Amino acid sequence: MSKAWFQQRERGSPLMIGIILWVAQRIGRPVARLLLWPITGYFLLTASEARAASRDYLTRLHGHPAHWWQVARHIHSFSATILDRVYFLSGQFAHFDFHYHGLGLLEQEMAKQRGAMMVGAHLGSFEVLRALAIEGMHLPMKVLMYQDHNQYLTRLFNRLNPEVAASVIPLGGAQSLLAAKEALEQGMVVGMLGDRVAESEKLTRGEFLGSETAFPAGPALLAGVLQVPVLLVLGLYRGGRRYDIHIEVMPPMPATTTRQEREQAVQAWTQHYATRLEHYARMAPYNWFNFYDYWRT
Q: What is the pTM of this model?
């Protein structure tokens, strides 16, 4: 699984993406959204790996074989959130209707001025969380993420909002932990995604949608080393203009002393995370945006 998503090639031509961005910025969101259906049809016909992954996920979720129209809806939801990134990164939040669940928990932690971790997933839109935190709520924030995947799209969106791009701490380098520690000591929020394992990354196991799969151990290990509060934060796309932003407190990671204790604590913490992901995936089934063989060992 560690290589499946990281080596998945970028799909969609730069020309197509450029046209969508031009329409989104010059003509508006209603017209741009009309283009999502032909784009959905294109990927439904040509992206066999993504199509198979979607069908596998939806079958596990619903307990019966997924229909083609469910796969199409799944791809369309993903396309819609990609389009909405343009507006999030441009600070055009007036286009949307945000519903917050647990916002007071985030406000309480930030009032303590001791820093906090924000763990998300490829479930819904993490971009709406980044943009809202930095521009809408003016929270000091850094994000740990891999920048080598989907480089064309990343560069394109970075040009839309250099401030958000500057908030990234690249993962995979020796300085990542040090930079995260420094940000937390300054009272910042440090965000990361906890549902994908990259090559050579430490992993643990957790049950998700009825089967065991691999999860990165990094979020739990980081929380244990830094001893800061961790919030699970997900921005679920609910169709049209609406996003539901859910915030809840994750259990604290103990400061373990032995390897066995640490492994047990990481596994228990990660299983809690996986259980909450399943809860929200069932709540918003077309928001799971891991279009590769997620359960492959």
A: 0.88
